[in-house]
Amino acid sequence: MVEFFQALRNPDILFLRYALVAGLTGSVAFGTIGSYVVAKRITYIAGAIAHSALGGIGAGLYLQVKMGVAWFSPMLGAVVAALVAGFIIGLVNLYARQREDTVIGAIWAIGMALGLLFFSKTPGYIEPMSYLFGNILMISRTDLLIIVSLDVVVILLTVLFYDRFLAVCFDEEFARLRGVPVGLFYLLLICLISLTVVLMVTVVGIVMVIALLTLPAAVAGLYSRVLWKMMIVSSLLCMAFTFFGLGFSYVYDLPTGSNIILVAGSVYILAVMGNLFLKRRAA
Amino acid sequence: MRERGRTPGRGSAPAIELEKLHFSYNRVVVLEDVSFRVERGAFLSMVGPNGGGKTTLLKLMLGLLKPNSGKVTIFEATPEKNRHRIGYMPQYTQFDPQFPVSVLDVVLMGNLGLRRSGPYSRHDRNRACQVLDEVDMCGRSKESFSNLSGGQRQRVLLARALIGQPEILLLDEPTANVDVGIESKLDRILGDLKEKMTILMVTHDLGFVTDMVESVICVNRKVVIHPTRSLDGKLIQELYDVDIRIVQHSHIAKGDGHRDG
Fold first, then answer.
1. pTM for this structure?
2. What ipTM does the predicted assembly reach?
């Protein structure tokens, strides 16, 4: 790990610092939003949103490289695509619940199909693997700025509307009876999930981002029985996972995304087993 | 505090009024031609077989469902307009038992329309403690909702319904899956509340609070109301028939032999 700290101080390997900053700031949003996702059991929605982001990334690349629209970055494309996907899923959930799973599956696949289509029509060689499984070399200074500002938005809204979101997640019907605009808050929550998912796409990739969203919250949920505590614990866990994942990947020259997810996954398995053990002893 | 019954003109307006209500779900008729009124301060129980439309009827009164035809009136206005005057306690079994939420969180949800967004204030906590005290759950506010027993969860949900100081209380199966000791506790709590508000309670269990209930609403697609007092011979016969059917039904559903007629 000493090597890792030295590398972080080395001005020649700036990308490592960027990756670490992206990972640590993103972790706060991941911990809070991930807790909502786990508590409300909507992991599959987060999955569909993450995968649909590929469509936006493809569109961004195509517009930038082929059409010369310099400001439309893949990152921005991912944000837009995730928001659109989240909005559609949210509306379907609110107004046509019985077909929700079909729509989620469709958005999942259509987003990826669109992304690959754009990739194939964009001149030059594009490595889809970078987007699917993450590539910290791709994090630019602008990306970092976007990540930090999105992070601030997500955290502000979660803190401000904590009780509303909690009520909507726990008992939608009752929240409606108490005059909470449930549809609005549900859509807002889905949009926050969309923004959060995009935060870490460059670090861990589209395919693995759901795991980083849900595993820290799932571990935290085993030991904390109140939502805000779960959020704090899972944010800290998420930070630890990205830090050690990144460190291992640098020291042993391994893919970053995979390392982060494997660290998270191992801790989750250990936590579940430990919890079972504790329960058995208590019983 | 409330002006119920004080002004003579308003005293005559019922708390709940249903007129020629029809409701069907996916073309299956759930409720048909339902008309009745609940006077202010009344304490009624609603019985009927599973799928007979009891919960649907509650949700129509809350404005969560819209009737296909007919009208629901709560204090001379639509249910939406007067939602804040109704306290609603759903069945506790509909909740995710692993949801990370504290008793305080749950109770304060009942206050959502009244408080601003942001952290709970001291006033909120005191209010929550007050209503928890009313249901004998004081001092448990920091506990996790999922760690409570069924009866305790019921009482927390009752506290959540009470924190907004409702004038009408709608309860959905407060005695479901609850043992006898808790039942008598609930019995006492409802006895206190009866003086303060109009109460309408769905139950499987006809024996529960029979001594307090003024009328029984029998719901099985159609609705028949039987006042428990001043029954003439014919009505008793009719009620008795209906009751036997209901009791037998709950007997099968619950699998524990309890009171007969």
1. 0.85
2. 0.83
